[in-house]
Design brief:
Elements lengths: L11 E7 L5 H11 L7 E8 L2 E8 L2 H4 L2 H6 L5 E7 L14 E5 L2 E11 L2 H10 L9 H16 L2 H9 L4 E9 L4 E5 L8 E5 L2 E5 L2 H6 L3 E5 L4 E5 L5 E5 L8 E2 L1 H6 L5 E2 L2 E2 H15 L6 E4 L5 H11 L7 E3 L12 H11 E3 L1 H4 L3 E6 L8 H10 L4 E6 L27 H8 L3 E4 L2 H7 L7 E2 L1 H4 L18
Parallel strand pairs: 14-23, 17-20, 20-21, 21-22
Antiparallel strand pairs: 1-4, 1-10, 2-3, 2-4, 5-6, 6-7, 7-8, 8-12, 9-10, 9-11, 12-13, 15-16, 18-19
Helix pairs in contact: 4-5, 5-6, 9-10
């Protein structure tokens, strides 16, 4: 990413586990650390203990929310779900952290959600009129409340999840833990966000990305298909069925560009391989006279390597990343954020001095801080900096869980390519085309949502209504 506050953010990462060991909370903690890149504002874990659901959640990084004393207080359990959050709907408060826990006449559920629900305001209104109470201001609470209400009506949590899914419009992957002992996972019919299943002997886990499975000691088994519901019973048996069939698929293509961790596999495609292809396509579409190719850590590195291989130019590191600096976006002023970024990414003068540099990164959103990183390379002695971006220009809002909701703030809608390059201080600027990007991720019947680039969405997309959740 160019700089943290100038990159798009994806809403959440989810994890669920049933294990023969009574260490579900600790395993979930490890998995959430692997999913930290998907959400850095809040974290939570809910566990099932003797048909009671207990949980802890708060704002902050996983390691901040779950200190050793907190983890030790969570009861030993065989089943748990976890969540990391980046807020696109609802402010960053403890109430909005997940999992969401709801009670109904026959029991209790905990739910963790990744995505964005288009008709959440309408559903919440109808549930409120039916007597449901709301403490949070996000659409994830709406999902949990709807499942609990449906469970009250039909008497079965599994059927309740299916019924709720058929009333929800938008993007959602959900894991649900019920007090009757079931672990349930569901992916929306378009498959906007990834979800996969892993095993370790008789133990079963479900995660947003395969990297979380591996970090928790599980072997990736398969992706959960769009529209599929997976149920892990109390005895560990797994069953699945399609509950939302026949929709046009639309995995967010930006998952491959930036959101997913490089070592993950999404819908059968290695993220690393996809990014290598993007870099190669970037060179074919946007060659530059240069001496070396460099990438911006971390998501620009694989694309930079692909660019270097295709061009025949040497690949070289341009930055040293300080991994002990806190999140830049938590600082209240722009000057403080800029200072944090300088501490986080230090240019490597020995690598770039006197060189014409191709600098590969994943995206430019608002262009508010991109000039700083280019300037740092030139201050370190780079003769030229040719900026190459492994995604097309952002021009449209995202309604499906990515924090891009005001086209007027996007630099591609305000400045020409040459003007943007000038604003960045770059000697040239080039983006990958939409056609080339989707081709880099194609195969095995994959289809994508590229609406933030093209304005064309797999389903009808209303104007953003996130403000409706800011007032209870």
């Amino acid at each position: 990413m160019l700089l943290k506050q100038d990159s798009p953010h994806e809403e959440c990462g989810i994890f669920g586990i049933r294990t023969q060991l009574d260490e579900a909370a600790g395993i979930t903690y490890n998995a959430l650390l692997a999913l930290q890149h998907r959400g850095q504002e809040g974290a939570g874990i809910a566990v099932l203990r003797e048909h009671s659901i207990l949980y802890h959640k708060n704002v902050g990084l996983v390691s901040e929310v779950f200190t050793r004393p907190v983890l030790e207080k969570l009861p030993h359990a065989h089943c748990a779900i976890g969540h990391v959050r980046y807020s696109t709907t609802g402010s960053n408060t403890r109430d909005n952290a997940q999992p969401m826990v709801k009670e109904f006449l026959r029991g209790r559920i905990a739910a963790a959600h990744n995505g964005n629900i288009l008709n959440a305001a309408e559903i919440r209104r109808s549930l409120f009129e039916a007597g449901c109470d709301f403490a949070a201001t996000n659409d994830s609470e709406v999902i949990a409340s709807l499942i609990a209400y449906e469970a009250l009506c039909c008497g079965d949590v599994e059927k309740a999840v299916e019924n709720a899914a058929k009333k929800i419009a938008g993007a959602f992957t959900v894991v649900v833990l019920s007090s009757d002992g079931r672990l349930i996972a569901l992916r929306d019919g378009n498959g906007f966000r990834p979800l996969c299943l892993g095993r370790q002997g008789e133990n079963v886990a479900i995660a947003s990305e395969s990297c979380a499975l591996e970090s928790a000691g599980f072997h990736f088994e398969r992706d959960i298909a769009p529209g599929e519901m997976v149920v892990v019973e109390e005895d560990g048996a797994v069953k699945s069925r399609m509950v939302l069939p026949g929709k046009k698929r639309g995995m967010c293509v930006f998952e491959y560009v930036y959101f997913a961790r490089t070592d993950s596999v999404l819908d059968g495609l290695s993220v690393y391989e996809a990014r290598l292809r993007m870099g190669a396509a970037l060179f074919r579409e946007c060659p530059a006279p240069a001496d070396i190719v460099c990438g911006v850590p971390d998501s620009g590195l694989a694309a930079a390597l692909g660019y270097a291989k295709e061009s025949g130019l040497p690949y070289a590191p341009a930055f040293v990343k300080n991994r002990y600096i806190g999140r830049s976006f938590i600082f209240p002023t722009q000057a403080q954020r800029d200072a944090a970024v300088r501490l986080k990414l230090s240019p490597l003068a020995a690598s770039v001095e006197g060189k014409r540099v191709v600098l590969v990164d994943d995206s430019i959103v608002r262009g508010t801080t991109g000039a700083q990183i280019v300037a740092s390379l030139k201050d370190a002695g780079a003769k030229e900096v040719h900026l190459r971006i492994s995604s097309p220009p952002f021009r449209y809002a995202c309604h499906f869980g990515t924090d891009i909701d005001d086209p007027d703030t996007l630099i591609a809608n305000r400045l020409s390519l040459e003007e943007t390059a000038g604003r960045m201080g770059a000697d040239s600027l080039g983006y990958i085309s939409i056609k080339a990007l989707t081709a880099c991720c194609a195969g095995q019947g994959r289809q994508f949502c590229d609406g933030c680039f093209s304005g064309h969405y797999p389903i009808e997309s209303p104007e953003s209504r996130k403000d409706l959740f800011e007032a209870r």
